[in-house]
Amino acid sequence: MRRYSRITGTGSYLPPRRLSNADLVAELAAKGVETSDEWIVERTGIRARHFAAPEVCSSDLGLEAARRALQAAGALATDIDLIIVATSTPDMVFPSTACILQNKLGANGCAAFDVQAVCSGFIYALTIADAMIRTGAASKALVIGAEVFSRILDFKDRTTCVLFGDGAGAVVLEASDTPGILASDLHADGKHVGILCVPGHVSGGNVLGHPLLKMDGQAVFKLAVGVLDEAARATLAKAGKTAADIDWLIPHQANIRIMRSTARKLKLSMDKVIVTVDQHGNTSAASIPLALDAGVRAGRVKPGQLLLLEGVGGGFTWGAVLLQL
Ligand code: ACO
């Protein structure tokens, strides 16, 4: 009998401090940085974001999302034999956020590691977990995207600080004799490192370089719309499906204009796209599982439906996963 992986539970968590565009505009104005609700909504579709309290880390947000996913799957922490956390804002340089989260969750002993592929991180992590389950290396995995991007934003740079927020999303992925994950497609092109990066590192007790996010927004936009379309088509082709078969497109939640462009290229109505970017901004690796969980809990995304998840981010990295829920 063939062995597949399938999602049996989803969960997500946003920290309680919510800033509407108006709240952020007022905070930035006090620092002499000028922006507006109109500019942010028109260029990005973002209306609000959540920021974690100073003592709260990615593992704390991921823990809440993981607990909710476990509850939805009817699984116990002790059933889990693999934890993968996708994050670019880890709690520490090391050990991994996955190990810290594992201990908080009480799943000690299982394999646990982080994946760093920025906003494509959840797609990478899900693909790795699927491969490990199919080969028998794991049977019940927690795949988590968790970020505190507010920690790496330059609040003097209006071209980036209005775009990002904090949050986490998680899924339980289990071995199954029916699919599940049907196909995936991962890519990276390191020649684009400079267009989206946090170009600093720790050395001799100091941070060398610039420890805050830098982005060439227009270059990112142009690359993103091209590679997302390619990844979507390649993944569908691997499974012998077409865009017309998709029930829901669940893209990385960075910018409504990128999502509209992706949907248009695939000839999909926006009614088939889960959009949550308005509520939490770009939460990097957390955004896809956040959107998935919102769709599931709203009763829109239903068991048996065909979902195309796709992400793009710093690296440059991109990829997609096609799955039957
Ligand atoms: N408020 C008001 N004005 C602003 C702001 C702001 N927050 N930011 C920039 N502007 C101004 C600029 O200064 C510029 O003014 P000028 O014409 O007088 O020079 C004007 O707005 C236009 O700036 P552009 O950069 O050309 O604006 P653009 O239409 O390209 O939108 C944006 C910028 C939203 C960043 C867009 O390029 C974009 O969405 N890029 C993709 C970003 C993205 O999705 N990144 C994440 C993907 S990967 C990942 O998630 C990590």
What are the bound molecules?
acetyl coenzyme *A
Please count the helical segments: 10
Q: How would you state the average pLDDT, rounded?
A: 97
As laid out across the biggest beta sheet, the strand order is: 1-7-6-4-5
- If you consult CATH, what is the topology of the largest domain? Peroxisomal Thiolase, Chain A, domain 1
Helix-strand sequence? EEHHEHEHEHEHEEEEEEHEHHHEE
The helical percent reads 25-40%
What percentage of the residues does DSSP assign to strands (E)? 25-35%
From the coordinates shown, what is the CATH architecture of the largest domain?
3-Layer(aba) Sandwich
CATH class of the largest domain equals Alpha Beta
Q: What's the main sheet like?
A: 5 strands, mixed
Radius of gyration: 19 Å
